[in-house]
Design a protein that fits this description.
Layout (H helix, E strand, L loop, with lengths): L2 E2 L7 H11 L4 H16 L26 E2 L8 H9 L6 E6 L2 E7 L1 H5 L3 E4 H7 L1 H8 L9 H10 L4 E5 L9 E6 L9 E6 L4 E9 L7 E11 L4 E9 L4 E11 L4 E8 L4 E10 L5 E10 L4 E10 L5 E10 L4 E10 L7 E10 L5 E10 L5 E10 L2 H9 L4 H17 L5 H16 L4
Parallel strand pairs: 3-7, 6-8, 7-9, 8-10, 9-11, 10-12, 11-13, 12-14, 13-15, 14-16, 15-17, 16-18, 17-19, 18-20, 19-21
Antiparallel strand pairs: 1-2, 3-4, 5-6
Helix pairs in contact: 1-2, 2-7, 5-6, 8-9, 9-10
Length: 442
């Protein structure tokens, strides 16, 4: 069982050094962890006076009192997680599973090792491939709006996924990782994906837990780095149980002629706030950003997307679909920013919201910041109840109102789920989305 280390201040650096020693980190990795801790302690707590945090109240959190657990023994693989892994095992190229920050399951196919693909946990990666990790880790950035939570995740993460695909390697079978919480303490998921020139891979990051007996906390970060001509499909699947309050920052940096497809699926947690950012900093880069959110009961979702074009001849396309039932709430804010000189940039953003009950509420706030004069940028947003004519048509064919509504919701969300190219991952995610829709209260 993990023991939670208390009182990070004034002995905060002792905590960081203890973590670093426990994980047998090299000096440079410990230095990055200490830098992140200093950023975390110095960054102000987000306030609702800040536009980025206006719709999510975190005033009840005292982050300085939340500290990571130092694993003393490896937890067992939960049966429900074992079943999830087993169902798609025949069509998966590799799987990692973490429980409360400890690696509990690892399987990689011979093909990955043969082609030099690094797919392992953070601790093994920095010990066995320090140069490759250090080169990227020392260049990772912090978003000022999320710095408090991002720095916290980098300082306190005890493990996480590292995926590095060498130049020219195409990984044919998808890879998957699962980060599970048992409710014993806070969780700090961390993912680093590096694709070298001309490589290709699909990765699912799953964040899962059962409903938790008490309020829980998590802060995670995912860094995606794409080299020239690389192609990455990255699926973030979030199904934390009730009781979890989770904050996530995902940042992708795209090289020349690279193509990134990110698919964010958010079903769980009592409170969830995520920033999803694509930085298109080389000509020819393409970013497709997709999202599916389904909320019920009193769930609170807050998603912020950033399409940042720092150079011209780059393309980004975004579609975010949200369906809400019960008394759930969703805030979506999206930013397309075209920096000076980024001529011929092409960006599109669309957010669609389906409201299934009178108590549910959706807000959508698309934004454009354009500082170049030869670009193509458009956006759109909708908030609407279930179409009465669709319901009438389905009910006239014999469907009960509840079944008709379910079919409408599934049809509304499915176009995004169909963009998960790997069949095994698409079936797993679609099944979990359908199961949650089916569990709606009458």
């Amino acid at each position: 069982m993990a023991s939670t280390l208390m009182n990070p201040s004034p002995t905060g650096l002792e905590l960081i050094d203890t973590l670093s020693r426990h994980l047998a980190e090299p000096e440079w990795a410990g230095a990055l962890r200490r830098e992140a801790w200093h950023r975390f302690m110095q960054a102000p707590m987000p306030s609702r006076t800040h536009e980025h945090w206006r719709r999510t109240d975190v005033s009840h959190l005292n982050l300085e009192d939340i500290t990571p657990a130092l694993p003393r023994s490896t937890p067992a693989l939960p049966r429900w997680l074992e079943e999830t892994i087993r169902k798609g095992a025949k069509r998966i190229g590799g799987t990692l599973a973490f429980v409360d920050g400890s690696l509990v399951y690892s399987h990689t196919g011979d093909s990955l090792r043969k082609h030099g693909v690094i797919f392992t946990d953070w601790q093994h990666a920095i010990q066995q491939h320090p140069d490759a990790i250090r080169q990227v880790a020392e260049q990772l950035d912090y978003d000022p709006a999320d710095e408090k939570f991002t720095a916290m995740a980098r300082a306190y993460a005890t493990s996480g996924t590292v995926l590095i695909v060498p130049r020219g390697v195409a990984v044919t079978l998808p890879l998957q990782t699962f980060f599970a919480a048992s409710g014993d303490g806070p969780v700090f998921p961390r993912t680093l994906v590096v694709l070298e020139e001309g490589s290709r891979v699909t990765l699912l990051d799953g964040l899962l837990s059962p409903d938790l007996p008490a309020r829980a906390f998590g802060s995670g970060v995912a860094d995606l780095v794409l080299g020239e001509g690389a192609e990455l499909t990255y699926v973030l699947f979030q199904q934390w149980g009730q009781g979890m309050e989770y904050f996530h920052h995902q940042r992708a940096v795209l090289g020349r002629d690279s193509h990134l497809t990110t698919i964010t699926v958010a079903l769980g947690a009592s409170l969830s706030k995520a920033t999803i950012e694509s930085v298109l900093c080389s000509p020819g880069a393409v970013s497709d950003m997709l999202g599916v959110v389904f909320g019920d009961d009193n769930q609170h979702f807050d998603h912020h997307t950033v399409q940042l074009h720092t150079v011209g001849n780059t393309t980004s396309d975004l579609l975010f679909k949200v369906a809400l039932d019960g008394q759930s709430y969703s805030a979506y804010s999206g930013l397309i920013r075209i920096e000076p000189g980024a001529q011929k940039a092409n960006a599109y953003q669309r957010n669609e919201n389906l409201v299934l009950s009178k108590q549910a509420h959706a807000e959508t706030l698309p934004n454009l910041e354009i500082e170049a004069n030869d670009v193509r940028c458009t956006h759109g947003a909708t908030v609407a109840p279930v179409d009465i004519e669709q319901m009438f048509y389905l009910m006239s064919r014999g469907l009960a109102p509840r079944d008709a509504s379910r079919l409408v919701v599934e049809g509304f969300l499915q176009p995004v789920l169909d963009r998960i190219s790997a069949k095994s991952l698409r079936e797993m995610v679609s099944a979990k989305v359908d199961a949650k829709i089916a569990s709606r209260r009458a």
